[in-house]
Amino acid sequence: MYGIVNKAIEDLVITNFGMEKWEAIKERSGIDIDFFISSEPYDDDVTFQLAFAVSEEMEMPVGAVLTAFGEWWVIKTTTEKYAGLMQSGGNNLKEFLQNLPNFHNRVMLIYPKLTPPEFKVSDVTENSIHLHYFSKREGLQEFVRGLIQGLGKMYATPVDIELMQTRDEGSSHEIFKISW
Fold first, then answer.
1. DSSP E strand stretches across 27-180
2. Letter string b/e over residues 48-71, b meaning 16 or more CB atoms within 10 A of that residue's CB
3. CA distances (Å), 106 to each of 29, 79, 88, 114, in order?
4. pTM summary value
């Protein structure tokens, strides 16, 4: 993952819990990196080590950490650093979700070494959509849940998210039913 992801985890912790807590998390993670460069790719293990260290240090399930980080990613990181890109996704939650399958094509112009997930949509109704999430990376479905919650907040649209199928139970990919 790119450094911007790890930098966002750092920002989340420092903003909410302070520099001392971030230093404790870095030490617990065993990561010997002084600072993350946003535009540089890092091994995925670095990000997962940080997430597990936050989980242990904050005494939270790792799924809750990933969900909180997904919300932070949308509300703080992307809307502050990539406002134009986010606004181009749609005028409301439904439009953004329908445009999500093409969204990472634009992101890859900024981060050419990105290995993005793939999204597909189905079962679109007036008040719900099924979002299919395909990724080479396992264990990030709660991060995606957080992203969806963050998008709901960005568009001032309360969301209900149901994980209908998951690779954890033998499926080929995750399907989220998102209702508003």
1. 118-122, 128-134, 160-165, 174-179
2. bbbbebbbebbeeebbebbbbbbb
3. 32, 15, 10, 11
4. 0.90
